[in-house]
Design goal:
The complex is a heterodimer of chains A (371) and B (377).
Chain A: H1 2-20, H2 22-42, E1 50-56, H3 61-72, E2 76-81, H4 88-93, E3 99-103, H5 107-112, E4 117-124, H6 128-152, E5 160-167, H7 174-196, H8 198-205, H9 207-213, H10 218-247, H11 256-280, H12 284-300, H13 313-318, H14 323-337, H15 345-368
Parallel strand pairs in A: 1-2, 1-3
Antiparallel strand pairs in A: 3-4
Chain B: H1 2-24, H2 26-46, E1 54-60, H3 65-76, E2 80-85, H4 88-96, E3 102-106, H5 110-116, E4 120-127, H6 131-155, E5 164-171, H7 178-209, H8 211-216, H9 222-250, H10 260-285, H11 288-305, H12 318-324, H13 328-341, H14 346-376
Parallel strand pairs in B: 1-2, 1-3
Antiparallel strand pairs in B: 3-4
Helix pairs in contact in B: 1-9, 2-7, 2-9, 3-6, 7-9, 7-10, 7-11, 7-13, 9-10, 10-11, 10-13, 10-14, 13-14
The chains are: A alpha/beta (371), B alpha/beta (377).
Chain lengths: 371, 377
Amino acid sequence: MNMLRHIVALAIKELLAILRDKKSRLVLIGPPIAQLLVFGYAASFDLNHIPIAVYNEDRSAPSRELVARLTGSPHFELVGHLDHDAQIAPLIDNKDVLMVLHLGPQFSETLMRGKTASVQLIIDGRNSNTALLALGYLRTILTDFNIDWSRQHGRPGPPATLRIRPWYNENLLSRWFIIPGIVALLTLVVTTVVTGLSVAREREAGTFNQLLVTPLRPVEILIGKSIPGILIGLIEGSFILLVVVFWFEVPLRGSLGALYLGMFLFLLSAVGIGLMISSLAMTQQQGILGAFLFLVPAVILSGFATPIANMPELVQQLTLINPMRYFMVILRGVFLEGDSYELLFNQYWPMAIIAIVTLSLAGWLFRNRMN
Amino acid sequence: MKAAAASRMRLFGMIRKESLQILRDPSSIAIAFVMPVVLLLLFGYGVSLDARHIPLAMVVEQPDATSASLTGAFQRSEYFDPQPFNSIHAAQQAFDLREVFGIVWLRNDFSERLLSQGDAPIGVIVNGVDANQARITEGYIQGVWQAWLTSYARSQGVELSLPVALEPRIWFNAAVRSRDFLVPGLIAVIMTLIGAMLTSMVVAREWERGTMEALMVTPIRISELVVGKLVPYFILGMGGMLLSVAMALWLFDVPLRGSFWVLTVASALFMLVALGMGLLISVVAKNQFVAGQISIIITFLPAFILSGFIFQISSMPAAIQVITHVIPARYYVAILQTLFLAGDIWPIVLANSAALAVMMIIFLGLAWRKMQKRLDA
């Protein structure tokens, strides 16, 4: 009973400390909402309106048909027609176009003779991912052109064709992949910022030692200091979820319970890490540095933007101690694949272990790190 | 004449004081040198969009020579790691458990249809959750398919008659290594963090302790104070920058096709913008707690997501593209990607440098004005 009263009192004090300062309040509420909206639209690998120029030396009906298919696609935007070679390089160099399609003077003649007409495509490879995706879009258009042309002109088609079907995200919208990840991204930033400085600030002000000599036990201090971070994280996380489902219309196919269990464990481990950093730090500057040093790798090595499977083995092992990695799988699994508790079990327990380890370390550090 | 000499003396005194302070407190040296090395090492190796050895389930219902040649084509590809499955049911189970990323399915009648009427379907299922990887995998699968078609036609003694064949030539990065474009971008992201953190935290601490006010009652002018604060951190930041560039070149083998001097000048410009941003944060925030919060929130994620480092700016909605213009890292990422991979392309270098120069003036000017106001208040 006493313990509960202690914890509640401390949690209220902590919440007040965070929310009393107007600037600090603003920092916790304003930017996450703004960032959610901006990043929701910005963070996508989908390409549209890829600027392309066509250098068509042939100008016959078949070549015009091919070009028309290109301009009809929402992925491409025809910027201009070229009439000699020398125009290609400056356009690509200055990023005026991402690619130039070059049809030689013999294009339709070769095509009509039943031979294979080759077309050149010059792509700006500065962003290799964009280059590969744009090439993929163009290939699809060309494959369709080939199939239709063969059918119309009685040419034999390829003996076997691919029937590719993507599951869970039929139209391959990369927004569906990225936006659920933003839930983890923003809640992690907010909870780390809230907890990462909470002990360090009191250490610097000298009030932490006062706290330690009160009847409060370290466990109570630990819980009292954890509650604000988890509470703020849960509230912001829920708000972000609402926006993801109702504003960005990402389908939520699995159970909300499985998602919240994941969010709770994730916040618990994030708070644990934040408090651990904070109690290790002697000054606020060290605290913020520590928060940064955790946050930046945690985000980049979480699979948020680039897949963990592409990392070298050693770095993959390192991601095992990153709680965001697990929550990322849970978010995408529940949203797109409709995963259940059982399927996500292997994501839950590592976060629970991280939380237990970091929280106990933080509690231990409260007493044992004093100057 | 005398005034100028006095000003110079005050300025040098200020620079000396700041440098001593930096040398005494190792944390800023750690921020400037240790952080870029650690982060670049971690990310240079960790961040990649190139998939290799993608696990694929191969379901061949009627194994024969033709299907064997197709599975052989997948086995030879460096992109795939095909695993045989007896039934589509078993393959789907592995797919649901995320043990395989995709399924290639040749039905009972595959070879029969191939020989009789052509147009035999090769069923492919890919996990579309990560749409970007799914698209790139589709591209790789198409590549394997086309190579197999050609070799199959040759084995039948005919020439494959595709109406139109594509000959792609990828400039600046022929091997399409994603690391070559990600590492220069990472330098921009890391330098944004370091520049802003170096100044924002350190200067906020001075406000908090009141030593800033103490400085201001000396005869030193605000402009001298700003310059004096910036010079040592600028040198530190440029040191970190140089280290990052060296790592990009020699550790990650990213080519530098533009000139080193253009890179240095553009980097210096960007460093001033980042330091100016940090200074402004510290003046606005007044205390370390808020300064730390603000610099985490407004530097890292925007530089990561809105700078064009990984997500293509030209594909964002128009309103978001407008917002990216206030992110300094955007200009620096464009300069770096071009300088490293394409060379000294002046229209891009100059336009983006001009934008950086404007931002530098705005940030430093605002910080200077806010400082004056604070003294009045």
